[in-house]
Amino acid sequence: MSATMIFVNLPVKDLDAAKGFWSKLGYSFNAQFSDENCTSVVISDTIVAMLLTEARYKDFTHKEIADATRTSEVLLCLSAESRTAVDELVDAAVAAGGTEPRPAQDHGFMYGRAFDDLDGHTWEIMWMDPAALQG
Fold first, then answer.
1. Theoretical Cys-Cys bridge with 93: which of 16, 65, 79, 98, CB 3.0 to 4.6 Å?
2. 96-108 confidence digits (pLDDT tens)
3. Separation of alpha carbons 89 and 38, rounded Å
């Protein structure tokens, strides 16, 4: 049985700017699933963010597209290998033009920060002590 994958589909206002942003964070793109209307950001072996121009995104829904800079549509959370990795990714996102919507949350066994990408989508980056996961 193969691992379940997740494809997060997000509308973007400027596809080239979005690709530049994610490239600066060190992510790669799958050219097989990318064209002038979308790009496939490979986050891990099982997580892919599909960034679609708003026109292409509208092909998949009859609903109004949320303006993520003004409303919350979804909170995306990615795990990180360490507290340092959390800081490195969020700092890189801010340096690439993203914003940090709230202060870090430090609970000792769990540490997290967040960034909003260029289109306002909130990405939470979280590290949890493996010992705490084992109960």
1. 98
2. 999 999 999 999 9
3. 23
